[in-house]
Automatic annotation (TrEMBL):
Pfam families: 2-Hacid_dh (PF00389), 2-Hacid_dh_C (PF02826). Its EC number is 1.1.1.95. Gene3D superfamilies: NAD(P)-binding Rossmann-like Domain. Keywords: Oxidoreductase. The lineage of its organism: unclassified sequences, metagenomes, ecological metagenomes. This is D-3-phosphoglycerate dehydrogenase. Signal peptide: none annotated. InterPro entries: D-isomer_2_OHA_DH_cat_dom, D-isomer_DH_NAD-bd, NAD(P)-bd_dom_sf. One of its GO terms (molecular function) is phosphoglycerate dehydrogenase activity. It is an enzyme of class 1 (oxidoreductase). It comes from hydrothermal vent metagenome. Residues 3-252 form the D-isomer specific 2-hydroxyacid dehydrogenase catalytic domain. Residues 70-201 form the D-isomer specific 2-hydroxyacid dehydrogenase NAD-binding domain.
Length: 252
């Protein structure tokens, strides 16, 4: 499954259900607690759509840097500083593509060995706030969980440099939307772009025009290749679990 919600009610309607595989990296649309109680294995398929998401990130950065192609002069990405928050499958691909644009790439991820990030030619920040202060663009790739929900708040956003842009292709819930609106009101040199619509989308679009952009729906994994990769991986994981008991990508 992709975007459907697998709730307690759905599980009760399928008493023989043994496994649920989310064809993608995120799995916040599955009730993990309910699945665990019912001995249902939940898996994801990490990395299968990471290139698709990364390409979208850079496409959105170009779109924003060139003023949404409205005919007015824009800026180039070459030489600009990009900070990547979370250096997993998507973050690594974002770094790879951004370096091709000639960007200076930085990352913050306390869960990834520093030497692993540096091996990709990426500079590591040990302090998240310092990365927000230093970079022209920040790209978010953190999951939505108890530690990250609404963690992108006023304290962080207010530290971004003049003219900076925040791009979110991760999860809606990680953004503190009231704080986002506050920083947009206070600073006319801050931009926000995302493939996830905030609750106050119409207000933001009406008030801040070209400083913000949202895709019609979540678009990160919306490529033919990503759909095939994730779907094939999910099918293979179901087979491996049923035939061999393989739980390699279990998340509960």
């Amino acid at each position: 499954m992709r975007s459907d919600k697998i709730t307690e009610e759905i599980m009760d309607a399928a008493p023989k259900l043994k496994i649920v595989v989310r064809a993608g990296a995120g799995f916040d649309n599955v009730d993990l607690a309910a699945a665990t109680v019912r001995d249902i294995v939940v898996m994801n398929t990490p990395g299968q759509n990471s290139n698709a998401v990364a390409e979208l990130v850079l496409g959105m950065l170009v779109f924003q840097a060139r003023n949404h192609f409205n005919g007015k002069p824009g800026t180039e990405l070459k030489g600009k500083k990009l900070g990547i928050q979370a250096y997993g499958h998507v973050g690594r691909n974002v770094a790879r593509i951004a370096k091709g644009f000639g960007m200076e790439v930085f990352a913050f991820d306390p869960f990834v060995d520093k030497s692993r990030i540096e091996a990709d030619g990426v500079v590591v920040f040990d302090n998240l706030e310092e990365m927000y202060k230093a970079c022209d663009y920040i790209s978010l790739h953190i999951p939505a969980n108890a530690h990250t929900i609404k963690s992108i708040n006023y304290d962080l956003l207010s530290k971004m440099k003049p003219g900076a842009t925040l791009v979110n292709t991760a999860r809606k819930e990680i953004i503190h939307e009231d704080d986002l609106l506050k920083i947009l009101h206070e600073r006319d040199n801050f931009s926000y772009i995302s493939d996830i619509s905030p609750d106050n989308r119409k207000t933001i679009e009406n008030e801040f025009g070209d400083r913000c952009f949202f895709t019609p729906k979540k678009m990160g994994a919306q490529t033919a290749e990503a759909n095939i990769n994730a779907g094939t991986a999910a099918a293979n994981q179901v087979i491996a679990f049923l035939e061999k008991g393989d739980t390699t990508f279990q998340v509960n």
